[in-house]
Every structure is written in C-alpha cells, then in structure tokens.
Automatic annotation (TrEMBL):
It comes from Terribacillus halophilus. Pfam families: TetR_N. The keyword DNA-binding applies. This is DNA-binding transcriptional regulator, AcrR family. Residues 1-59 form the HTH tetR-type domain. Residues 22-41 bind DNA. Coiled coil: none annotated.
C-alpha cells in the first residue's frame, strides 16, 4: 500500500508542490479514506521524507547499475547518461521529483532532503571516480574528473527543473564538449 501511496504522492508533489498537496486528495486517488492514509503517513512531511528517501535509494541503484552494466567508452557512457537523465526526467515522475526537491525542498525539511541528496551524489561521485581511474588519458585526477562532471550535471539539472528540454540539450552539448576537451587535451 505504501508504494501506491508514494506513487500517487509523487504525482501530486510534482504537480502542486509541497504546500499545494492535500492528503485527502492523495487518499481519494489511492482509493482509501484519509484516516487510512494517516495510518501509513501521519503527516504530509512524513510522506514527503519517506517518498524522497525511497526515490534516492532507487536512483542510487540506477546509478550503480548504469555504471556497471555498460561496456562502452567513458565519453559515450557519460553522453548516454546525459540522454538518459533527460529522458527519465520527463518520462519517470520519480526522477523529476528527486531533482525538483533537491532544489525546491520546503525550508523546514531542506536539511534532511539535502542530506539524502548528498548520499546520492556521493555514490554518483564514487562511480565516476571508479570509471575514470580506468583511463590514463585524462589530464586530471579521478577526483577532479568526478567533481567536474557532477558540477556540470548539477547545472544541467537546473535546465530541466527551470527551463526545458531544448535548453537542456543545448547546454548539455556545449558544456560536455568543453568538459571533454579540458580533460583530454
């Protein structure tokens, strides 16, 4: 039941923001009474934080799978990750929720949300360090490679959250080209 509740909640959080979400509307869409929803999630903040934590864990699994199952070059792998990120942002509400909340968390919960997001970024960074350490053709350390790519990645996420797909594609092509030239020349 919690999984169904979280799925509906993500759609509501994405559509209305934290302040606009009404627990009775989520209960109605799930097909339960508000009291039954309160059994699983006594407050909206409980629902938000549990949902966000679950999605962070899903995305950590995605990142770990993504970097271990691909048998392609590093450049192609990173470009594929950027394409996947855009696709998943628009097609999978959980991905949009993760990224939107990382920038627009309610003030009273921002420390908790950021701590979860940092956990995700840490795993992301470790995977980048691991793949970059397999190459000796870079002009930077694996740590610098990872920090540089994550910085670009965060900037590109802003394009998805605040702009649109066209803006993301343009910024992605431009910034990745400069990044790649910088680490390989």
């Amino acid at each position: 039941m919690k999984e169904i509740i979280r799925e509906v909640a993500v759609r509501h959080f994405n559509a209305f923001g934290y302040e606009g979400v009404k627990m009775n509307k989520i209960a109605e869409e799930v097909g339960i009474r508000k009291q039954s929803l309160s059994y699983h999630y006594p407050t909206k903040s409980d629902l938000l934080l549990d949902t966000y934590k679950q999605i962070v864990n899903e995305e950590i699994s995605f990142i770990e799978d993504f970097f271990t199952k691909k048998d392609i070059g590093i450049k192609e792998l990173l470009l594929l990750l950027l394409k996947e990120t855009e696709y998943r942002y628009y097609k999978q509400p959980n991905v949009a929720f993760l990224q939107i909340m990382s920038f627009q968390a309610p003030v009273e919960y921002s420390d908790i949300v950021i701590s979860y997001y940092r956990e995700y970024l840490h795993i992301f960074k470790q995977n980048l360090i691991q793949i970059s350490s397999k190459s000796n053709s870079f002009t930077c350390t694996p740590e610098e490679f990872a920090v540089g790519f994550i910085t670009i990645f965060d900037g590109l996420i802003i394009q998805l959250v605040y702009e649109d797909s066209r803006s993301f594609k343009y910024a992605s092509q431009s910034s990745f080209s400069i990044f790649w030239k910088g680490i390989t020349s």
